[in-house]
Amino acid sequence: MALLQIEALTKSYGNEARALDQISFSIQAGEFVAIIGPSGAGKSTLLRCINRLVDLTSGDVRFAGVSVPTLRGGALRRQRTQIGMIFQHYNLVNRLSVLENVLHGRLGYKNMVQGVLGLYSETEKREAVRILESLGLGEQIYKRCDQLSGGQKQRVGIARALVQQPKMLLCDEPIASLDPNSAKIIMDTLQQINQKLDITVLVNLHQVDVALAYAQRIIGVNRGRVIFDGPPAELQQEQIQQIYGSESGELIFSLRERYAI
Amino acid sequence: MSQRSEPLPRIRVRPLTRANLSIQLTLLGLTLLTLYSFTTFDTRGIGLVEALQDMLNNFRLLLLEPRLRSVSFADLLEALFVTVGLGLLTTVFGAIIAFFLALFAAQNLAPIWLNNLIKGGTAFIRAVPTVLWVLFFAVAAGMGSVAAVIGMTFHSAGYLIKAYAESFEEIDAGVLEALRASGASWWQTVFQAVVPTSASALLSWTFVRFEINFSTAIAMGATAGAGGIGFDMFMASAFYLDLRELGAFTYAILVFAMALEWFATHMKARLGKSRE
Ligand SMILES: Nc1ncnc2c1ncn2[C@@H]1O[C@H](COP(=O)(O)OP(=O)(O)OP(=O)(O)O)[C@@H](O)[C@H]1O
Ligand SMILES: [Mg+2]
After folding, report:
1. Which domains does chain A have, with CATH numbers?
2. In Å, how far are B103, B126, B203, B264 from B162, measured between CA atoms?
3. Which domains does chain B have, with CATH numbers?
4. Distance from residue A162's CA to the centre of ligand 1 (Å)
């Protein structure tokens, strides 16, 4: 059975045109999937429907056998602990230390008092430190987050998602604010997490070349509809033009040749 | 380069809009009113030179020759303590109430109808001056410290709710989203993200309000029978006509205000550093 099953998912904000229109696909456990598409296509909205940061208008999302749209309160929180999320702007609490930020990933497992007071068990703390060390941040654990570089912040974001012990990672343009070097480190890290920890990765990307290099499967979205769904090898210029509109096609395709993928 | 003699049209830096025009007319009106009032002062035959001399003499007594007579130094300290206590108590009460209500008044933390309800209520509370609130509660509690505490707390809460809520609203929406995405509950998000991010702003606003409440507490001592240094100053000035003693009280207040300022700055610096 698929880990994530999306059926006829539709989302409209108010009276505007549909941000997502009858989206259906499913993802098997262990896959590394990239979603590409132009700005405003609905990529961020799609990810947020999966962990219910936004409510869907109609359709169904099933994660690990549980239907997400009707979840509320404690059940929704428990569901969210199984899905880690990584953001373009890292979204860390800048005034807190690296370790405190990473431990925020455990809040979904805590009762109200423990979470409010920030009471974490020794096991949780040791696990957080171990993950930080594995991401090369062992020296930084007591630093305030606003003293880190962008690449370091994103690794803290990844650590925060990993202490959740998630089945799946949702990444919303994780490298869009990073220089090429840091971007490569982050993408390599995501790949390792996918291969070594067997965590399913679903990542929104603006860079087609990066998607082609890392993903086992690419989903192309335009105006809230799935235009393409298949392995990178099947993504031809024609499909890229359909996804991004005709003008951009050649530019992106030449990129692909340059990177010799 | 050829020189043209044709005059260029003048360029206005500020367009003459309706808003600009009304500001200029208002300023003109105020100027005329001021000039008019100068010409119609009732000076009761006191000469300008004489009046200035008197005033300077009074300042000399007040500032250069302070001393105590009707009260002892210990009395002064006790009165100052009462006034500081009144200011502190109302600030702390107000801050605690304001913290919880401000969470529901912030747009990024609570539904909009609740925001509007609380913001509307606090706007009304703030629109009525503190003194009127004290007098209002004096009807129920009688003139004195109880009415002063309730009335000042009321107005402090109204003020701090607005200030705190605006600090909360400045928090990056993405940070709150990230905690919700990991399964954190609303209260956990508040204490793990909202409070640490806005702590220094909350502290600043609370100190500002304490300064306001301290001076209000002095005024309440003089006018609403709340006791403390305000009452002693009222006695010294209106009853004993003793400017020298009034001067001593003024210095006591000044010293305390400076100590408070130093403490506030020190606290903020420490809060900034403690996490590094
Ligand atoms: N909170 C919101 N309220 C109203 N409309 C929204 C909201 N969020 C997104 N939209 C609309 O939904 C559509 C899809 O937006 P979304 O952010 O999902 O696109 P995206 O593919 O992530 O774009 P980008 O690549 O620029 O991040 C857009 O038309 C956008 O204007
Ligand atoms: Mg987006």
Report:
1. 1-82+166-261 (3.40.50.300), 91-165 (no CATH)
2. 10, 10, 14, 21
3. 71-275 (1.10.3720.10)
4. 27
Q: Report pTM.
A: 0.84
* Residue A49 confidence class, pLDDT cut points 50, 70, 90: very high
Question: How is residue B172 annotated by DSSP?
Answer: -
- Cβ within 8 Å of B, A 116-175: 116-118, 144, 147, 157, 160-161, 164
Look at A104 and B7; give whichever has higher pLDDT: A104
Measure Cα distances from B230 to A191, B1, B222, B227, B237 in Å. 71, 76, 5, 7, 11
Dump pLDDT digits (tens) for B122-143.
999 999 998 888 888 888 888 7
Residue A136 has pLDDT above 70, yes or no: yes
Using the CB atoms, write b or e for B26-38: b if 16+ within 10 Å.
Answer: eeeeeeeeeeeee
The 10s digit of each residue's pLDDT in A8-21 is 999 999 888 888 99
- Pick the residue whose CA is nearest to atom 14 on ligand 1: A42
Distance CA B152, CA B158 (A): 10
Give the pLDDT score at B276.
41
Closest CB to B178 among A79, A85, A96? A85
Ligand 1 contacts CB of residue A42 (under 6 A): yes
List CB-based neighbours of ion ligand 2 within 5 Å.
A 44
* DSSP-assigned letter for residue A146: G
A19 lines ligand 1 (CB under 6 A): yes
pLDDT band of B275, cuts 50, 70, 90: very low
